[in-house]
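Protein modeling request. Please complete all fields; requests missing the sequence field cannot be processed.
Requester role: graduate student
Desired output: 3D structure, token encoding
Chains: 1
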Amino acid sequence: MLTITFNAKPHKIGTWTILQLPKSASAKLPTRGMIMVEGTMNGIRFTAPLEPDGKGGHWLKVNTTMRDTVTVKITPIKEWPEPKVPLDLKKALATTPHAHTVWKDITPSARWDWIRWIRSTKQQETRKRRIEVAISKLKGGDRRPCCFNRNMCTEPDVSNNGKLIEPN
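Delivered output (168 residues):
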């Protein structure tokens, strides 16, 4: 696999500290959507998802103590780690055995998609409705959320209309 090396300076968006990849680094990745990578940041190993910024690039949430420019080396990986399942979704899956069976059968990448789709809303009522829809779709055998644009930024704290907010 291709190793991509770049330098970048962490930026704040609200309470988050992010590292936005230079466009030239994102362009070398095999997808505009979320991708799992492993690599080093100033020599320290990590494995993490690179989130799409909704503009053809990628970004990464980093430790809030980082302030200086860092050297990053990343390599896309095929094996996705298990996502952390939000408690509200975990409870819904636990009460619906057939949906839970399908959930366990889909790939980690598909589970990441469901979680990203559910969390991409700022409104609690919309999130609740999305969990209900996800459970219904999983019960029906759907393996991924329908009509989900994997290239959009889905973190409500750092995005607006699917695009990463410009760092401060």
